[in-house]
Structures are given as C-alpha cells and as structure tokens.
Amino acid sequence: MRSNTRSSSRSRASGVPQWCGCGCCPVLRWSTTEANPNKPFFGCPNYNINGKRWCGLFVWADVGEEDLRGRVMSTVDGDQVRVDLAWRIGKIEAEVRTQKMYILVLALFIVFVISFMLVVKA
C-alpha cells in the first residue's frame, strides 16, 4: 500500500479515531514511499479497493506498540465483521417481514370476526 499525499491527515495529538468516514474501523498499514519507508499509519480499509469509496482517513501511528495492539484490526477481520453484520441485518429484516405478516393475519381475523358479529346480529 502506498501512502497518498491527497489524504486528510489529522494532527498527531488527536490520535486515531475509532471509526473512519466510511463507518469502518481504521486498519494499520505501513508506508512504501521513499520519503517514509515502512512507517506505520492508520488508514481507511477501503483505500485502494476496487468498487469501494475511500473516505481519506490517514493518521501516522506515532503511539507506542503496546497502544497499537488494542486498536489494530486487520482488513480480513473487518471483512468478517461486515459479513457478520450483513447476516444479522438480513436476519432482522426476515423477522420484521414475519411480524408484518402476523399483524396482517391478525387484522384480517379481527375484520372477519367483526363482520361475522354484524351479520349474526342483523
């Protein structure tokens, strides 16, 4: 991965945000430029991936290694999190469809009972 000069750097004092502008957890990468060889930085996991928008997150990793361990999430882990979230969202959408069907059946039953009561009463 190459660091990009058009990226939006944040001040070193501000630290690494928990989420990037794309809603993803920043990933740790290493610069491959001649000016900053092998220098670690946090960036958007969508950088340089076909079909994905890059939000421009770029922050040099100036903190100690012990601080990085808790913040680092590899791209593979991020992809797994997205798959898990997509599965959960699909499951919730299916439950919502089921609940809507139950409400529809209940409403039809109530209409039927009220209609039956009106016919019998008359």
UniProtKB/TrEMBL annotation:
<keyword id="KW-1133">Transmembrane helix</keyword>
<feature type="domain" description="GRF-type">
    <location>
        <begin position="20"/>
        <end position="64"/>
    </location>
</feature>
<protein>
    <recommendedName>
        <fullName>GRF-type domain-containing protein</fullName>
    </recommendedName>
</protein>
<keyword id="KW-0472">Membrane</keyword>
<keyword id="KW-0812">Transmembrane</keyword>
<keyword id="KW-0479">Metal-binding</keyword>
<dbReference type="InterPro" id="IPR010666">
    <property type="entry name" value="Znf_GRF"/>
</dbReference>
<dbReference type="GO" id="GO:0008270">
    <property type="term" value="F:zinc ion binding"/>
</dbReference>
<feature type="transmembrane region" description="Helical">
    <location>
        <begin position="101"/>
        <end position="120"/>
    </location>
</feature>
<keyword id="KW-0862">Zinc</keyword>
<keyword id="KW-0863">Zinc-finger</keyword>
